[in-house]
Design brief:
- With about 325 residues, this protein is of the alpha/beta class.
- Helices cover about 45% and strands about 15% of the residues.
- The strands form three sheets. Strands 2-5-8-1-9 form a five-stranded parallel sheet. It has a two-stranded antiparallel ribbon with strand order 3-4. A two-stranded antiparallel ribbon has the order 6-7.
- β6 and β7 form a beta hairpin.
- The longest helix has 17 residues.
- It is globular.
- The two termini are about 20 Å apart.
Length: about 325
Amino acid sequence: MIWGSTKTKSLESIEFIAENELIPFYPKIDEFLNQINQIILGKDQQTKLTLCSLLAGGHVLFEDLPGLGKTTLASSLSHLTGLNFQRIQFTNDMLASDVIGINMFNQKEHQFEFKQGPIFTQILLADEINRCSPKTQSALLEAMEEGYVTVDGTRYELPKPFWVVATQNPLFQSGTYALPESQLDRFLMRLSLGYPSRSAEKLLLQQSSRHALMSTLNAVFSQVEILTLQTCVKQILVSEIVLDYLLDLTEETRKGRHGLSTRGVLALKHAAQAHALVEKRNYVIADDVQAVFVAVTAHRIGLGEAETFNLMQKVSVKG
């Protein structure tokens, strides 16, 4: 079993967080979602899942046509979290050194010095990531998995928290490269904003520009609070019933196909824990798993959102 030699021993070895330790954060979570939903109109579920991704310490990939608000969302997140933000516009001629940095010779000091690339930030918007070559895409792999980059044999630690919000264009558009499975697996969730509703789009036409509205945003969280919440997420209680439900879902994904990997199962658990916290609970229920299942699973098993949702419905909660 992946959860330990016995379920009882596995659960007893974990220290779960008390409700009173989370209560001070609940008003801030509400304020965060309220402010972000004033910028990104009519996409409450996507913004909630984006917050879950951040609190779970996982990266998020948005797959959409250009101009649907992905960059606006990432910029708004940096304002509200009080974290440093950098944006990289990926192009087909971009090199790995343009992302992670390069060693440059300092003629005055007669030695090489490392010049940091834009990846040395806390929130990185990797815009149109699938427009660059696979070699450049691979520059992000170590950073997304371990929080480090290696240049000429020297390892450099990235700021904490380090969170990648990437966007990719549909593959039918010219000049795009499909992300390899190894890189897709580094993203906790894949989301899509899609077109706004008619009422939301009308409000967009009536309001000031999104950039003007973003300038009015105030930080809701601090860096320390984000790191604290990421630690709290790991201590959210996952009962044996929910663990069995997770494993039942995992087994269903593996029937007749390349299903969810062990890393994918852990990602699903962490995302469900983050969703429980956002819903103001210190324990996970099946609803949390169902809320994040499609976003966490679809890109890992190569199915569309509707197919993944139908797969989830085949598995019932026992107990």
